[in-house]
Every structure is written in C-alpha cells, then in structure tokens.
Amino acid sequence: MNFESLAHTIDDDFDLTSDLDHGGIVIPTQTCEHVQYVELLDTIVRITPTQCVDCESTTENWLCLSCGEIHCSRYVNNHGEGHWLFTLLTDEKYNVGHCLTIGLEDLSVWCYPCKSYVKNVRLNPLIKCIESIKFGSSNDSLDQSCDCETLDNLIPTVDNHNPSTIIAIQEASLLKELTKTDLLSFCYTMKFRSASIDELVRLHSSDYVNMIVSAEKVHSKISSKRFHISWFDTALSTARLSAGMTIDLIQNVVNTDHINGFILSTSPGHRALKDHGNGTSIYNNIALGVNSVLMDKSTNNPRKSSLALIDSNNHVHMEGATPIEDAICHMINVLTPSSVFELKQPAAKIPVVTDNNNNKIQIERAFIVDLTCEHGSGIQSVYYESNQVFYLSIHKEEHQHRSSYHECGKNQGIGYTMNIPLACFDRAYDKDYETIMKELILPIVKEFQPELIVVCVDFELPHITASCYAWIIEQFRRIDQSKLVVALDGDLSNVSSKSAYVQKVLSVLIGKSSEISDDEWKNSGVNKDVLHKIDLIKQKHQHYWSCFQ
Fold it and tell me: What are phi and psi of 533, to 5 degrees?
C-alpha cells in the first residue's frame, strides 16, 4: 500500500479519532472484523518500562498487541495512533497494521479502524496474561508468560510431516477438548477469515447482502418479515466468519492431493436461500464453498456476478448489473477488508494442485449429504435445477419445501435431488442409517462419481451413535477419486456437548481408527418405514439412475 492510497483510505473510511472525544461510558463491540487479521503477540513475560517509546510519557499509555511497544494515548501526544498508521503503510498482507492496543490502566482493548473498544474470544488469553502480570496471580503455579493458543494459530502437540486432514475450528470449547488429544497433530489447522462481499454476492442477492452487512456494521435492526432470520449481537459477524472458513477449506481440499476436510463452525447455513436467510441460517456456507470450486457449465445464463476492478479510481462493477446494483456492490465492497487466506500448518506448506496453465483446479460434480435434523431447504433450492450437484437429505416426513421423495429436481437437475422423508425419524437407529447408506447412497455415489463429497452433520439425531456417524464418514472416505469434507451445519445450539462425536469422526477421517468390520451385511432389525421408503425412492429414481433399475 502506497502513501497516496493510504491517505485516500483514511480520508474516506477511517475518519481518525476526533479531538472532541472526551471519553465516557462505552459499549465494546463484539463484531470487530479486524481481529482475525491481526498477528498477536506470542509471549509476554513483563511490561517494563511503562513510558511511551516516543515521548517517554507515563500518562495513560497503551501496549500494542502486535509488537509489544508502548505508546501514549490520543489524550496525550497520540503516538499510539501514529504507530498504527506507520504499520499500516507497511502491511501489504492484511492492510490493517498493528490496529489493536490495550490500555495499561484498565486493560481495555481499542481498535483504531473501528474507532471502538472491542471484545473478542481471540483476545481473552492475551488479556488474561497481561492481567496476571499487572496484578499478580492468585495461583502461584501460574506462569508469567502467555502462549496464545488461539482459534486461528494452533500448534500441534507432536510433529507430523504428512497430515491427512485440513481442519477449521470456530467453536472454542471444541478446540479446547481436541487439544487434550493427539488428533490435531494429524491435521493442518486453518486460519479463518470473514467472507468478502464479492464472494457473498456470487450466491446471495446484492440487496440481501447489503442489508445484512450494513446491519452488522452499525448494529441496526433487521426486518425479520422480509429476510426471515433470527439473530443476536454477534450472529452476523460470526456468520461471515463461518462462510469464509467454509469457502477456504473447501477450496484447499479440492486443490490439494490426498487431503480431506473438517469444518467446525458456529453459524449454520444450510437453510439460507439466495435472497433471504432462514431462522439462524444467514449465509449458505456449504453452497458458497461448493460454488467457489464448481466449474460453471451453464449456457443459458450469461449474466455473472463476479466483480472486477476496471478503472483507475478502483470503482467496482458487476457484469450485467443495473446501475443501482452496481452502486450497492461498490459501496459495500469499499466497506469490506481485502480477502485474506492462509493456512497454519505443522510441517511444510500444503502443495496446491494446479493444471498445466497454473490455474487452481475446479470440479464438475459435487455430492452433498445432509445428515442434520433439519431439511436443507436452502441447499436444495440452490441446486434444484443443477446436474452438477447431487443433494440428498434424510429428514422428518412432515418437513415442507419440496422435501417429499417425489421432489427430485427440475429441468437439467431432474434426478439430482433425493429426499428420504422418514415417519420414524425420531425412532431411527444405527441399523436404519446403515441400510440407507448401503441401499441408496453408496450406489448413487458410485454411479454419479463426484469429485467432492460434503457431509453435513449436527450430531443431534436422537438415536444415532458416534460410531454410526464415524462408520458413514469412513464409507465416504474410502471412495476413490473423491475428496471428502465433513461440515457442522444445521442446529448448532448444543454442538459444544458433542465433543465425543467430533473426536470419533475426526479419528476415522484422519485414518487413525476404523469402524468398518468384515461382518456380513444383513437388513434384519431395520424399521419397516425405512425399508418402505427405500423401495419408493428406488422406484422413483430408477428412471434416472441405472443402479436402481
């Protein structure tokens, strides 16, 4: 970033701290979108001396959370903000500089581009470390140093030079439980980021994205009647993080040899439609991720939603857009930080597979299996007329929105949707799901030959054990020429209690354990409703797939 562009950015977006600000009661924001980009200190042992490095002032000083330098506040000589601007000039990677600083008086954290105090789970370990140094610890065994093992910078417990799985963990409690095992030593761990506006509008309508992003920034109310979503203070920013990490993980799984993926997000998305959300589903994470690697083979829809910089003033335009849509896209793009992508890994850099023209590989066929408690109406809606993505859902029979076994696609997508509605859904057991896998899912996967398989889970099925989930995942893992991604989706309100399920699935995903035995397969003990629905679905889909003829 050169000085001219920096000055332009500051004038238009940042609006440096006003001299009229004299403090008072403040409410820290929990939706700071810069936190995930900042490189935080790894270790703090002591904080001395406590004066500003520029003017030696000892009045209300602040500690930079990126480099540990101490600078005076905006009420003294404002050297803290000067330090941020200087680092902003040289930050070509994230374009945020050392924007986070902590007050040594009250240990409050300030973000310069947000012009606000902030709270974020990523900052908690560092704040606790500084607090113990400043005030002393009540626990004599507490070390005065801080190893910031944050959600996006995980150090494996042992060296492993051949990881088999990329994992993205947004849920802090699950991360804590996994660190007690050696499972993460078999994984690349991903640094996640918020999805950009450009990425979101490639699936969702610009009107919807503009409304959600604007509400995220100013914490305004959203018309629930129009967009059908329920949300809390941090839901909107969390949803963008979940979307961004899903996109990045799927892209890397597809573009890397012999690697699968596991997404542990905290914001569901499989019910979100193109032009509005649905309950707690705000952005359709899975569809965004699949679309980012799916080769566009459509011929009847020349209009695209990709953004491109086409003039010297960095104005953004969308091909085929109306002037109003174009203005909206430009406005929200200006308000969005540049895209960031990086993997944190225990060994060598992950090799990216490219074609002969050095382009990232894209796929032609993807298979999405929905094993959550809720029908993924949003995913089905996105791909209902597509013959590139096969969507399969097992759900309660009373679900609406084209969830009957009669609903199997439209136009080019006829036969590429399979709904398995069960009257006995709340009474289905491992044997029932294993039978569905053997009789319906595996035959169609073998014939469809997808290059990517995405399995959506929420681990909330009433009588399905962790071993059954692991058995299903292992069946998919053994399919040749297909990459596999397991994604938490659906109802995630109680996912923190499912650590045992996560560990079981991850164990088979990395190949450390197996749930597949050599026992002869039998359909004994299977619910009659399951067997009846299997027969009906085979009759319906035999018109489209030879495996059922």
Answer: -65, -35
Q: How many CB atoms lie within 10 A of CB 319?
A: 13
CA dist., res. 118 & res. 114, Å (int): 9
User: What spatial distance separates the first Cα and last Cα of the chain, rounded to whole Å?
Assistant: 62
The per-residue b/e assignment along 43-70, b for 16 or more CB within 10 angstroms, e otherwise, is: ebeeeeeeebebeebeebbbbbbbeebb
Ranges of each domain in the chain = 3-135, 165-516+527-548
Residue 291's pLDDT is 95
Would you say residue 82 has pLDDT above 80?
yes
Q: What angle do CA 94, 295, 323 make, to 5 degrees?
A: 65
pLDDT (average), residues 208-213? 85
Max distance between CA atoms of the chain, in angstroms, equals 83
Residue 29 CA to residue 31 CA, distance in Å, equals 6
Q: Name the nearest CA neighbour of 504 among 484, 529, 486, 528.
A: 486
Residue 436 is predicted with a pLDDT of 96
Helical ranges in 111-256 per DSSP H: 124-135, 172-178, 197-200, 206-218, 224-227, 235-254
pLDDT single digits (tens) 169-207: 988 888 888 988 989 888 888 877 889 888 998 999 888
Give the count of beta carbons closer than 10 Å to the beta carbon of residue 6.
16
Q: 223: buried, middle or exposed (CB in 10 Å: 19+, 13-18, 0-12)?
A: exposed
Q: Which residues pair with 117 in a beta bridge?
A: 110
pTM, two decimals, is: 0.65
**Which secondary structure element, helix H or strand E, spans residue 391, and what is its range?**
strand 389-396
pLDDT-derived band at 225, boundaries 50, 70, 90: low
* Fold for the domain defined by 3-135: Herpes Virus-1 (3.30.40)
Do residues 180 and 149 touch, judged by C-beta distance below 8 A? no
Strand ranges in 265-365 using DSSP code E only, listed in sequence order: 307-309, 316-318, 342-344
pLDDT tens-place string over residues 405-435? 889 999 999 999 999 999 999 999 999 999 9
**pLDDT tens digits, residue range 305-359?**
333 333 333 333 444 455 555 555 545 544 444 333 333 333 333 333 444 444 5
Question: Each residue of 348-402: pLDDT tens digit?
Answer: 333 334 444 445 678 999 999 999 988 989 999 999 999 999 999 999 987 666 6
Residue among 461, 490, 66, 484 nearest 242 (CA):
490
**Nearest alpha carbon to residue 261 among 271, 251, 273:** 251
Closest C-alpha to 192, from 33, 377, 381, 413: 33
Cis peptide before 351 (omega within 30 of 0): no
Chosen CATH of 165-516+527-548 out of 3.30.360.10, 3.40.50.300, 1.20.1530.20, 3.40.800.20: 3.40.800.20
Beta-strand pair 116-117/109-111: antiparallel
**H or E element in which residue 447 lies:** helix 442-448
Residue 545 C-alpha from the chain's centroid: 34
Residue 519: strand, helix, or coil: coil
